[in-house]
Amino acid sequence: MKQYHLEKSPIVYYISRKEKTEWILFIHAAFVNHNMFQTQIDYFRDKYNILTLDIIGHGKSTKVRKGDSIDKMSAWISEILKTEKIEKIHIVGISLGAVLAQDFANQYPEAVQSLACFGGYDINNFDAKMQKENSASQTLMMLKALFSIKWFAKSNKKISAYTLQAQKDFYEMNIQFSKKSFMYLSSLSSMVNVRQTEPRKYPLLIGCGKYDIPMELSAVEMWKKNEPECCVIIFEGAGHCVNMDTPDKFNAAMEEFWLSGYGKY
User: Fold this and answer.
1) Distance (Å) of CA 202 to CA 52, 113, 198, 221
2) Over 90: is that where the pLDDT of 237 sits?
3) What is the pLDDT of residues 139-185, one digit of tens each?
4) How far apart, in whole angstroms, are the C-alpha atoms of residue 253 and residue 248?
5) CB 74 within 8 A of CB 104
6) Taking a C-beta distance cutoff of 8 angstroms, is the pair 174, 152 a contact?
7) Which of 94-103, 117-126, 128-137 has the lowest average pLDDT?
8) pLDDT for position 150
């Protein structure tokens, strides 16, 4: 992957390019970085053009200027696509990445070839009670991190991954997350329940791991009710970060979604 920096932004992004083929954008979960998709990069790099990035405050996207915050991610992604002359792209988001993927799709639907969201929730119809529970959980996580990033990472790995290898890999990325980066996530709520879902002109796949928290499984069920035409997959043997827990199943599912007319799941 070749590394780039988007001008007038903190965003560092990475590209593996093949000529005359489709593009995939992978957006990572909170507290880690683009390397959570290493298995996907290795699998798909000979079949697709791949774009990954580090979300603001994560990985190498830490040279932040006054006024920069996570609510600018969609505009920055749009600028990356313009810079790289990408007209349409398959978007895959995990957890926080699923929120950002939806926000981008809300604002730039013409650039979306397909949308796949895992470990997330419907940002246009997020249940108030569930939103309150989610906020309380995030506050507790932040308090742990402010006390000790290592303590936070040890606790977070068990929430974020199910298999021991995925937990180890998640932890190694999580301990690199800086406490001060929490401030860049504060505007995340500005993306939630502010737009109505427009009829999608691209396929949508949603899902999570069988061993994710109950609230996430409920969020997927509610999303399916709101958009019954979408495809759903629950990954056996996986927790929150399904691409890390069951990478082979995840890669096969994504390939099938992109190639088979999107209707299998």
Assistant:
1) 21, 6, 11, 20
2) yes
3) 666 665 666 788 889 989 999 999 999 999 999 999 999 988 888 88
4) 9
5) yes
6) yes
7) 128-137
8) 86
Q: Which residues of the chain form beta strands (DSSP E)? A: 2-5, 12-16, 23-27, 49-53, 89-94, 112-118, 204-209, 231-235
Q: Is the pLDDT of residue 264 over 70?
A: no
For 11, 48, 212, 233, the CA distances from 261, given in Å and listed in that order, are 33, 17, 28, 15
Specify the residue for token string 């979408």. 230
Strand pairing category for 12-16 and 49-53:
antiparallel
What average pLDDT does this structure show over 32-60?
97
Quick check: 249 pLDDT over 70?
Answer: yes
Q: How many CB atoms lie within 10 A of CB 81?
A: 19
3-state SS assignment for residue 35:
helix
Enumerate the β-bridge partners of residue 25: 51, 91
**Is the C-alpha dihedral spanning 225, 120, 212, 215 positive or negative?**
negative
